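Many introductory courses stop at the sequence. We go one step further.
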Amino acid sequence: MSRDTMRPGAADDDKPITLTRNEAFWIEVIRMASHDADPAPTLALVQKLRLLFSPCRSSS
């Protein structure tokens, strides 16, 4: 499935972003988890998200 992406500072900042259904779903999940807040991606928050989505490591 092809889609256009846009990165901050890109030359074509006016171009709309097209999301896949999966991307839109995950954005909605994040919105629900943050109670519709728009938290800045701080180092602490990014580390917590990475822990949530990292595979569980066994201590054996």
